[in-house]
Specification:
The complex is a heterodimer.
Chain A (H helix, E strand, L loop, with lengths): L2 E5 L2 E5 L8 H9 L17 E4 L2 E4 L12 E3 L1 H4 L7 H8 L9 H14 L5 H7 L11 H14 L1
Parallel strand pairs in A: 1-5
Antiparallel strand pairs in A: 1-2, 3-4, 3-5
Helix pairs in contact in A: 3-6
Chain B lengths: L1 E3 L4 H10 L4 E3 L5 H6 L7 E4 L9 E4 L2 E5 L4 H7 L5 H8 L4 H6 L2 H7 L7 H6 L3 E6 L2 E6 H4 E3 L2 E2 L6 E8 L5 E6 L10 E8 L4 E7 L9 H13 L2 H4 L5 H14 L10 H25 L1
Parallel strand pairs in B: 1-3, 2-3
Antiparallel strand pairs in B: 4-5, 5-10, 6-7, 6-10, 8-9, 11-12, 12-13
Helix pairs in contact in B: 3-4, 9-11, 11-12
The complex binds flavin-adenine dinucleotide (FAD) and FE2/S2 (inorganic) cluster (2 copies).
């Protein structure tokens, strides 16, 4: 099947999509956006988190055809190397990145949290990031990064 | 595989009538896991997310109708006063990402004994509105589940909505799991008090092949509350009554040993959850 949707504010057209594949597969293997990571393919780890029409979702659980005509924002759409998003900068500054595999998903989830709730409590941060696993950091620096990003935005 | 995305309910029913074997997909949080792991390979996938009507809710008098396509995130944001038990249960589902996609219709469609929407629906005597091109029918939620991951839907039928009475009193839900987020319930318990009807409703998850009610516990508690004129007086509940309710709730279950917990643990936990939810709900009733 063919798909036409918007990725990071750019129109995107892809051909020869298999109907059963996920948005994550489309992004990584067909569009060439490798920021969203594939770790579990079952919604457990959050490393594939993107914004679909503004809502944080696991792109591994969205069927390709479901995004036709919709708007997707991936970590690449938040900022790039020359112009980091404040959440990305906070992750760097707080040392919240080790192997980095979980980082794109956490950055998208954090950006989504801070847009909805600019001054989250620690409990609210934990709740908002409950669907994002990190096997390296032990989460302490990740929480620091979220607090830092919130403080900088204020 | 074919992919269809009907934009109206009638169109979806027509597709299902013509292709009863087609798999429908709503939030995809159950379906996509199976597709990703090659556990399901349907010949046709029918996307329900383009049907705007399916993702709406409305009130008619004292009846709340929640479309099958309404997500947990919206239940939490929009229905926490109208359907508080369901909203509390929705908060315990997965993660924000899962709650943004997962729907109440998909939870019923999967019919897992651990589905978190099910206990509050049982406690409030919800009705599942089922439709096909042949017509529609209303199924009491208690009759909806026929076994683990099985339900009464015919191959050409879809879930249109669930209806519940607008909450007339306190409702509670509690769930036991290994973490405070992202867990399938080891067991769960929902309670609904209806001070107008002098009725007590319960729902138990993950402790029998299907979600079930604790009918004897409901009957005994409702009887004792009425006998002591408690709906009127709102005095503290007698400890023996709370214990009795907890014991009867645990006895209603038919749990098994599995990877998530033993039968004995589930029974114990159920008594604890029944006691807690009753205490919370009664305190709320006393305050108001
Ligand atoms: C990481 C993760 C965590 C989870 N945590 C929880 C949890 O804590 N509690 C919980 O209860 N569940 C949980 N789930 C399971 C799942 O999110 C829920 O069951 C959810 O409600 C499914 O809804 P959906 O819209 O995504 O369904 P889908 O995956 O789209 O569909 C599920 C099933 O229902 C059928 N279906 C969907 N809509 C209809 C309809 N209108 N009529 C007829 N059939 C229909 C589909 O054909 C399919 O068989 C979790 C899943 C994941 C991946
Ligand atoms: S890859 Fe999607 S949640 Fe893990
Ligand atoms: S930094 Fe390695 S998984 Fe989080």
């Amino acid at each position: 099947m063919q798909l036409q949707f918007t990725v990071n504010e750019r129109p995107c057209h892809v051909d020869d999509v298999w109907e059963g594949e996920s948005l994550l597969f489309v992004l990584r293997e067909r569009v060439g956006l490798w920021g969203s990571k594939n770790a579990c393919e079952q919604g457990e780890c959050g490393s594939c988190t993107v914004l679909l029409d503004g809502a944080a979702v696991c792109s591994c659980l969205v069927a390709a055809g479901q995004v036709d005509g919709r708007h997707v924002v991936t970590v690449e759409g938040l900022g790039d190397r020359s112009d980091l998003h404040p959440v990305q900068q906070a992750f760097v500054d707080a040392g919240a990145v080790q192997c980095g595999f979980c980082t794109p998903g956490l950055v998208v989830a954090t950006a989504d949290l801070l847009r909805r709730n600019p001054s989250p409590s620690d409990a609210e941060i934990r709740e908002a990031l409950a669907g994002n696993l990190c096997r390296c950091t032990g989460y302490a620096q990740i929480l620091d990064a979220v607090r830092l990003a919130a403080a900088v935005a204020r | 595989m074919e992919f269809l995305a009907p934009t109206s309910w009638d169109e979806a029913l027509a597709v299902k009538a013509e292709h009863p074997e087609a798999e429908v997909i709503a939030g995809g949080t159950d379906v996509m896991v199976d597709l990703n792991f090659d556990r399901r390979r349907p010949a046709m996938l029918v996307d329900l997310t383009r049907i705007a009507d399916l993702a709406t809710w409305q009130i008619d008098g004292s009846v709340l109708t929640i479309g099958a396509g309404v997500t947990y995130a919206r239940i939490i944001d929009e229905l926490s006063t109208l359907a508080p038990g369901l909203a509390i249960a929705s908060r315990t589902v997965g993660s924000p990402q899962i709650r943004n996609r997962g729907t109440i219709g998909g939870n019923l469609g999967s019919a897992s004994p651990a589905g978190d929407a099910h206990p509050p629906l049982l406690a409030t005597k919800a009705t599942v509105e089922v439709a096909s091109a042949r017509g529609s029918r209303s199924v009491p939620v208690e009759k909806f589940f026929t076994g683990a991951k099985r339900h009464v839907l015919a191959p050409d039928e879809l879930i249109a909505a669930v209806t519940v009475p607008v909450a007339a009193g306190p409702q509670q839900f509690a769930k036991v799991g290994t973490r405070n987020a992202m867990v399938i319930a080891v067991t769960s318990f929902a309670l609904a008090l209806d001070p107008h009807a002098h009725a007590v409703g319960t729902g138990i998850g993950s402790a029998a092949p299907t979600p079930i009610r604790a009918e004897e516990a409901e009957r005994v508690l409702a009887g004792e509350l009425a006998a002591a004129d408690q709906w009127e007086h709102r005095r503290p509940l007698d400890d023996h009554l709370v214990d009795h309710f907890a014991r009867l709730s645990a006895e209603a279950a038919a749990p098994i040993d599995d990877v998530r917990g033993t039968a004995a643990y589930r029974r114990h936990a159920l008594a604890v959850l029944a006691r807690r939810t009753l205490s919370w709900a009664w305190s709320e009733y006393q305050r108001n």
